[in-house]
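Please, does this match?
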Amino acid sequence: MWVPCQDGRVTESIHPTTTAGWREWVGLPDLQVEWIKAKLDTGARSSSLHATDVELIPGSPDRVRFRVLPWQATDDDAVAYECPVHDRRIVRSSSGHSEERYTVLLDVVLMGRRVAAEVTLSSRDEMGFRMLIGREVLRRGFLVDAARSFAGGRAPRDVRRRNRGRG
C-alpha cells in the first residue's frame, strides 16, 4: 500500500490499514471456531473471550483448560480447549470491578487477516458479544468505523440463526 507523505513524496506504508465495523464476525482457528460475533472496542486494552469451566490443569500450573461457547443463546457446539497460560492479569471492567484472569495466546481471524492475540478468559454471559477485540489487536493495522457493522461481511444465515438460538 502506498501513501503520500507530508512533503508530497509517496512511500510504502509499513502498517496497511483495514477498516472494520464496531462489530464483526471473527474466527478462532486454534479452537476450530469458524464464527464468533465480536465487539471491537478501542477503549479496551486486551481482548477477552467468553470461557466457562476455566481451570489450571492439575499438576501443571502453566497450563489451563476451558470451554468456549460460541453462540449467544445456547451451549451447542461448545469447544473444550487446553493451552499454556501466557499471563495472569488484573483486569478492571467498565463497571470498575477488578478480577484476576488467565491470559492465553490465540490466533484471531479478523477481516480475513490472521493475527496473534493475547486473550483474557472471562465470563461474558451477561454481555451481548462472546468476544471483545481490544487495542492490542486493533493497532496492528485496523481502523474501527463506529458507524459500520460487519464490514468484513456477515456470517451465513444458518450461523446467524444459530447464534440467536434458532439453529
Summary: Helices lie at 135-138, 157-163.
